[in-house]
Amino acid sequence: MSEEVRVREGRSRSLAQALEEHLTEWAERTGITVEIWALPGRDVPSVVARAVLAVLGEALANVERHSGARAVSVAVTLGRSGLRMTVSDDGVGFFGEAKGRGVAAMRAHFERLGGSCGVNGVPGEGTTVTGVVPCQD
Q1: How many Cβ atoms sit within 10 Å of the Cβ of residue 12?
Q2: How buried is residue 84: exposed, middle or buried, by Cβ count under 10 Å (0-12/13-18/19+)?
Q3: Cβ pair 83, 76 in contact under 8 A
Q4: Pseudo-torsion of CA 118, 124, 125, 131, nearest 10°?
């Protein structure tokens, strides 16, 4: 059985719809191009959907605040091992370990569900956030 994400207005929508709407609104507001490489073809439990949306929101906030990016690429896929999410930007990147409250929050959202989240930067080339969450139908 498929659960849907509840939104403020009380209506339901799938994770793919929620992601597409969020990314469209963010791109329009920031002027940063969003390339959607993949969205899930089926839905996930609402607890997973909420975590994905929270991590995406934090990743995009970091892009907007710190990266100087012109474009962001997003892929969210479902496979046998669970959900995979990748958010990559073409901004300034960074050297060393990713730190800060936002990074800690992203990791915590996925770790609570038995998953993991990593942030890698390449100076002058951008930053990539990757996350994996196990989920069952």
Answers
A1: 13
A2: middle
A3: yes
A4: 10
pTM for the model stands at 0.86
Q: Which two tokens stand for residue 40?
A: 């899930």
Average pLDDT, the chain: 87
Low-confidence ranges of the chain (pLDDT < 50): 1-11
Tokens 């080339």 appear where?
125
Q: For 84-102, what is each residue's pLDDT tens digit?
A: 999 999 998 888 788 888 8
Inter-residue contact 131 to 119 (CB < 8 Å):
no
- Total residues belonging to the chain: 137
Q: What angle do CA 52, 19, 57 make, to 5 degrees?
A: 55
Per the listing, tokens 């990539």 go with 128
Q: How far apart are CA 131 and CA 51, in angstroms?
A: 11
Please answer whether residues 61 and 129 qualify as being in contact, where contact means their C-beta atoms are separated by less than 8 angstroms: no
Instruction: List the one residue out of 94, 74, 63 whose CA is nearest residue 16.
Output: 74
CA distances to 9, 30, 61, 68 from 27, rounded to whole Å, are 22, 5, 12, 14
Q: Are 117 and 55 in contact (CB under 8 A)?
A: yes
